[in-house]
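Deliverable D4.2, example record:
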Amino acid sequence: MPDGISGLALRAYLDATYGVDGPPPTFEADLDAATMLWCVLSVSWFLPVALAEDGAHNVDDDRVPGRRTLTLARLALAAGLPGPEPLVSWAESLRTEFLGRWGDHPLRLAPAFR
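Output generated by the structure prediction step:
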């Protein structure tokens, strides 16, 4: 999803949920923590197939990205989050290792946003 659209969706959610008072002071840190957890969890789902020599699920097509693409994208997102530092470093290191093995696999926008 394009950044501009996700930002609008988040703003609409915050306005509808918290109104003029705005979100609690911990909202951004909580969102970052939830995003980190989602990245690490989803990498654990994609990794067994991404590491397999059978390339059937590692090929990107017009509708669905391959598992290597998803793994690299989630690791990049995790590496760009503000901590916790051990997880950020882990994501950076693992992404660097996989880029060396697989090359770059850029994640394309979903078909609805192309």
